[in-house]
Amino acid sequence: MNTVPIYEAKNKLPLFMHQAEESGPVFISRRNTTVGVILSIADYNRIIAKSCKDTILDRAAEFRKKVDGLFTNEDIDRIFDVRDNTPDSYESHVFDGVFGDD
């Protein structure tokens, strides 16, 4: 692990950027406490790709593939429906009066 003081990182940024690209992250410290890191774009993209979470639509599509033929599309839509459909829910009344059908 390569750790450099913040003043040195400021004065030699191109050197440490090259090190990050070639050898991995360069940690930056202030008063012996790590406060930052220089990453190559490849490392950054790898981290971001791992942290991307699937949406409920992604999960539903995965589920559809796994259970192909076991459930109808309507069944799957009901399983992944996260709306509150109880009669007194906010969502059940959100469009009341909007379209002139009081």
Tell me about this structure.
This protein has a three-stranded mixed sheet with strand order 1-2-3. The relative contact order is 0.09. The N and C termini lie far apart (67 Å). The protein is built from six helices and three strands, in the order E-H-H-E-E-H-H-H-H. With 102 residues, the chain is α+β, with helices and mostly antiparallel strands.
Characteristic terms for this protein:
alpha+beta, 49% helix, 3 strands, 102 residues, 6 helices, elongated
Oligomer: single chain
Low-confidence stretches: none
How much of the sequence lies in strands comes to 5-15%
The H/E string reads EHHEEHHHH
Query: What is the radius of gyration?
Result: 26 Å
Termini Cα gap: 67 Å
Class from helix and strand fractions = alpha+beta
- The overall pLDDT, averaged over residues, is 81
**What's the total count of β strands?**
3
Overall 3D geometry? elongated
The residue fraction in helices comes out at 40-55%
Strand order of the largest sheet: 1-2-3
List the helices and strands and how they pair.
Blueprint: E1 2-5, H1 6-11, H2 13-23, E2 26-30, E3 33-38, H3 41-51, H4 56-66, H5 73-79, H6 90-93
Parallel strand pairs: 1-2
Antiparallel strand pairs: 2-3
